[in-house]
Automatic annotation (TrEMBL):
The organism of origin for this protein: Anoxybacillus andreesenii
Domain Purine catabolism PurC-like per the UniProt entry, residue ranges: 9-128
Protein name: Purine catabolism regulator
Pfam families: HTH_30, PucR
Ranges for domain PucR C-terminal helix-turn-helix: 457-514
Length: 533
């Protein structure tokens, strides 16, 4: 059954035997959603669109100006057409009316015999209501048939074919930057469809995004060359998009489970146990093309740690989707609530950090949730390595990055090992020497003074060094007057020596300040006795 009723369909009904279409014959394919009897002159706000209007003409009574005004209001309100009982109050149709109707493809139909409007409205309303019930029934049948086919479908093209054969219109599916046409089209038709997709809204076009895992993953569109799309078309499109989302999610999940089975091989890779030949053989089997220009390992922890295995799998799918869009091939290894991602860089080396940051930002700003929670990510991104046999180096440095992150005052300043700079050196020293002893050698007088007098010399020292010795900028940042700052600087000179801003000593002090913050934030700064300093 057709999913729409047009004006020309109603002309075949009872009481429409003695009619004449005197204007707007090209508009007989207009959709009809209701029928109204209208005998008033102000109707612009009384209609919702697609109504077939019945009238005796009593509202204008041979008044041409009123007649023109009413017809223009009907056209503006997107009425389906105007049926006039000819002879009772209207004995002629002015040429101006006919010209307006022809120009806008607005059907004007004359009843040459008196007709019972009550019976016409009853008949058409019954038809429309029954038609709505039939549409609901057809929609449910379509959904059931589509869901049944989902159980055996092996490719999304089968879904596109299903909706295309049902609606008999062009189907376009945009998936992973590829455009699929069902049925296939010529190059000329392809360009025309692209133009229509990029244009403003058209009544012959409907499109719906397919959000998968809280991301705009794909898009499905339908378009007709000969008619406006109906509400039924839009409902069918929505049901089909839902089915496509289910199919694609299932495919991603199956693929992710297959990858999980290969975790053992990947675990040996990050431990440095594979040679280049076996790595290339593995990548040739799993990637369509191996364009890797280097690799990075990303350690990722999800907090809170209350997620199911299914939640973790969904997160891996989401992470892979985001970073593949940024030019990486992604492999994942799950270890409890820690996920280790191996990212192969397929684009320029010069942009890899920028692209990684874009991916991290997209995840952080998305509405992605696991269960009822938006996961908090704790990340450590290791050293970039050009040789795939050195992935274990990136893995070890990603672990070190995570450890350093935990010990900093501001752990999210950088996720990247390549951006930790001085903190890498502090971490190395801390593993081999008594770092606190060296820190106290330089900073003990300041720490002692602040604790004894509840002063802020350490903050002043940090700010003064950060401002490169600018007193004006330091006072401004600390929100203190110059005289207070001068007094504090004098105290710093007394405790640290008047040469504390000399180049070499200043570098040592700055390093020790970072080391002190490192020890305090990691709770490894042992208590010191104020009196002993």
């Amino acid at each position: 059954m057709k999913s729409y009723i047009m004006v020309k369909d109603l002309l075949q009904r009872k009481h429409f035997e003695a009619i004449e279409v005197i204007a707007g014959i090209e508009g007989l394919d207009r959709l009809v959603k209701w029928v109204h009897v209208v005998e008033v002159i102000n109707i612009r706000n009384l209609l919702n669109g697609h109504e077939l209007i019945l009238s005796t003409g009593v509202a204008w009574k041979e008044n041409k100006e009123l007649f023109i005004s009413i017809v223009e209001q009907l056209i503006e309100a997107e009425a389906a057409g105007l049926c006039i009982e000819f002879g009772t109050y209207t004995s002629m149709i002015p040429q101006e009316i006919i010209d307006i109707a022809n120009r806008t493809h607005f059907p004007i139909i004359l009843f040459h015999k008196e007709v019972p409007f009550v019976e016409i409205t009853q008949d058409i309303h019954t038809l429309l209501i029954n038609h709505q019930y039939q549409i609901i029934s057809d929609l449910e049948a379509y959904s059931q048939a589509l869901n049944k086919k989902l159980l055996t479908m092996k490719h999304f093209v089968e879904i596109l074919t299903f909706i295309q054969q049902y609606l008999k219109i062009q189907v376009v599916f945009i998936h992973q930057k590829e455009v699929h046409f069902t049925p296939k089209v010529t190059e000329h038709e392809r360009k025309a469809i692209h133009t229509l997709l990029n244009s403003s809204n058209s009544p012959k076009l409907a499109r719906v995004p397919i959000p998968l895992l809280w991301d705009h993953y794909s898009e499905l569109a339908i378009l007709s060359s000969d008619r406006a799309l109906t509400e039924f078309d839009h409902l069918i499109l929505d049901r089909t998009a839902t089915a496509l989302a289910q199919f694609l999610l299932r495919e991603l999940y199956v693929e992710e489970k297959r990858r999980a089975d290969e975790a053992e091989w990947l675990a040996r890779w990050i431990e440095g146990e594979h040679d280049l030949e076996s790595i290339e053989e593995y990548l040739a089997f799993h990637l369509s093309t191996n364009q890797a220009k280097g690799a990075i390992v990303c350690h990722c922890k999800l907090e809170p740690q209350e997620y199911s295995n299914l939640d973790i799998t969904y997160f891996i799918i989401y992470f892979r989707t985001i970073f593949e869009q940024q030019g990486f091939s992604v492999f994942a290894i799950e270890k409890r609530y820690t996920i280790i991602f191996i990212l192969l860089n397929n684009r320029s080396f010069s942009t890899w950090i920028h692209r990684m940051k874009e991916g991290i930002k997209k995840i952080a700003e998305s509405d992605f949730k696991l269960g009822n929670n938006k996961p908090k990510l704790v990340m450590g991104i290791g050293k970039y390595v050009e040789s795939l046999t050195n992935v274990h180096i990136s893995y070890q440095t990603s672990i070190e990055t995570m450890q350093i992150q935990k010990k900093r005052f501001h752990p999210c300043e950088s996720y990247f090992y390549d951006e930790l700079h001085i903190f890498r050196l502090i971490s190395l020293l801390h593993r081999h020497i008594d770092l606190q002893e060296i820190v106290l050698e330089y900073l003990a007088p300041i720490i002692s003074y602040d604790r004894k007098y509840n002063a802020k010399l350490m903050d002043t020292l940090k700010t003064y060094l950060a401002c490169n010795g600018s007193k004006q900028e330091t006072a401004k940042r600390l929100y203190i007057v110059r005289q207070t700052l001068y007094h504090r600087i004098q105290k710093l000179e007394k405790l640290l020596g008047s040469d504390f801003m000399d180049h070499e000593k200043r570098l040592a002090i700055e390093f020790m300040i970072h080391a002190y913050d490192f020890l305090v934030s990691s709770k490894q700064m042992k208590p010191i006795e104020v009196e002993s300093i």
